[in-house]
Each structure stands twice: as structure tokens, then as C-alpha cells.
């Protein structure tokens, strides 16, 4: 028979011989030596097999190979052929099972601020090349860089040194193990900036907008930022009553990513104050009818009637304060009546207005 060397975990190439017999009390039992298996078709193998029945056994081929579970080492011996009390043997050629290649790596990814400690039985590894569903319980890991909490974001090439795979169901004797260095990758840690809700009355300046940080590590502070955040709102001095977003943006830092949580600026209604008189005489003082804070109701209606009920002024909204004229002409001094409706649902504001010159 020819050589049937194998690599551990892979069945060896097969060799074969032919058996036959006459006047046999039973079929021929074929039993290979330890580490080998036999087959009659070269496909399905077993630890032993029986060929034929009592009497005459026609020539039949027997295939022999090393089993894929056979441990590393050198193997030989005889294939034993038996029928009843009669037996014979077929010698095998010296063959060997050589170690299977096994590669163990342990690339590590951590967040900035975390600490990696050397480990004597780490389970954080990848094993490529294990055979027969075998397992490794742990390996030894040493970190040469990137393991400290203040090591900055980046990739530390070859900083993971692995060794000493142990325990589990595998046997290191069956493998040629390599431990190529792996990388430590340090990722930025999330930093959350949360804006504070604010409120003000209509017509007032926006309050100072503020926010809070959450997520600094290593006792760090905004001093570590390479670009400070900007907080803003879309509300301006003349914005109507309502709610307006407060947003944050623009922060930057090597070791942090940023989550921005917006807030709301609420502009509350301010009571409308209606002047009871004005003096449209062109001296630049009190020349227009002042209705303070009416700008918060952009769809209001304003009407002014004279003593006879004739409408001398009418406006939807009050974008330009009334100057005491009607159809381009100055109205005479006197008392006028006004009706102001701030919204379609609100009760009208009414009263008297004096023009003084």
C-alpha cells in the first residue's frame, strides 16, 4: 500500500488492497490499526467492516486512510483480516499526521476613556483553523499601547500580543499555532450636549441660552474641545407668541463625538397696552398712536371711528402705527372710538382715543 500522510483535522489520502477467499466460515472482518479507517467504496469509512458472507468471497477492494481525528504523530501497523478463527494481515506503510495551521488573533476596539488590562485567560480572540469542532478556552493577552484610558483616538498597530492558547477541547500538539500581533482601535466616546428650555414675554430680548455637557471621561472638561459649540434660536425680538427651537452645533474634539439635544424657547403673550391719546403735530414726539405689543397678533384688526360712527382708520395687523390721518388728510382734534380684535376668538378691546394737536 502507498503512503497516506495527512494533516490533522483532514482525512488522509487513501490507499487500497484487494481481498478474497474460499471456504470461509463467515464474511471477512477488516480491522485497521489504530488511527486508520476503512471503506469498500472510498466514500463511506468506518473503524472496521465485514466483506461477503460464509463460503466464497469474490475479490473486493478495501480502501484505507488516516482518520481526520487522528492526533499528530507517526502511524503504522497491520490491517487484520479475519473469518472465524482464521486470520491474516496486510502491513501498512509508515504514515504521519502533521500539525494543522492555527492562527490566533485578538483585535481589540475600545472607547476613549476605557482601560485594557493584560489578561491571562482572555476569551476575546479569534481562532482560524480549529478542527473537529474543537474549542479554546482562553489565551494570554498583553497590550503594548492603546490600553490606557487617556490614549487618544486612533489605531495602535500590532499593540496586542497574544500567546498561550489553553484549555478547551483542543490539544496544542495537533496544531502549528501562530500569534500575529493585532491592533488596538480606540474610538471616540459620545458626548451629549443638552440645551435648556427657556421662556420670555413677547417684545423682550431673548434670554441667555444655556446647555449642559454629559459624557466627559478622564475628568476632562470643555477645555479639551478644539471647537466650542454654538447655541442659537430662530426667535428674534419681534417673533410672535409661540414656541421656537433652540439648537446646538459646531463642537469638535479629537476624542469625542457629539449628540445634540435641542430645547424650546417659549414666547408668552404680553398684555397689549393702548395709548389713550397722541399728538400728530409733526414734532417727532408722540406723533403716532402707540399700541404696545400688538405685534404679537399679526392677524389682528384695528378700526377707528369718529363721533358720527364713520370709519376713519382700518388695518389688518398693525405694522405701521396710525398717524392721525384719513384719506391723506389730517383729522381734527377730538375724541374717536376704537375697536381692536386681537384674534378671531378673542373679545374685542374697545375704548376712546383723543387726537391732540
What's the SSE blueprint?
Layout: E1 6-7, E2 15-24, E3 28-31, E4 36-39, E5 49-51, E6 55-66, E7 73-75, E8 78-83, E9 86-91, E10 95-98, E11 100-105, E12 108-111, E13 119-122, E14 126-128, E15 138-143, E16 154-166, E17 175-178, E18 182-187, E19 189-195, E20 198-201, E21 211-214, E22 230-233, E23 242-249, E24 256-261, E25 263-268, E26 273-274, E27 277-278, E28 291-292, E29 301-305, E30 311-316, E31 325-326, E32 329-330, E33 334-341, E34 349-355
Task: Compute the CA-based radius of gyration.
Answer: 47 Å
Give the spatial strand order of the biggest sheet: 12-18-16-15-13
Subunit arrangement of the protein: single chain
Strand proportion: over 45%
Low-confidence stretches: none
Q: Outline, from the CA principal axes?
A: rod-shaped
Question: Major beta sheet, specifics?
Answer: 5 strands, mixed
DSSP summary, beta strand count: 34
* Count of separate DSSP helical elements: 0
Can I get a quick summary?
Residues 191-266 form the MBG domain. The protein has 357 residues and is an all-beta fold.
Question: Can you describe what's shown?
Answer:
Residues 191-266 form the MBG domain. This is T9SS type B sorting domain-containing protein. Pfam families: CHU_C, MBG_2. It is a single chain. This protein is mainly β and 357 residues long. Helices cover 0% and strands 49% of the residues. The protein is built from no helices and 34 strands. Strands 12-18-16-15-13 form a 5-stranded mixed beta sheet, with no helix packed on it.
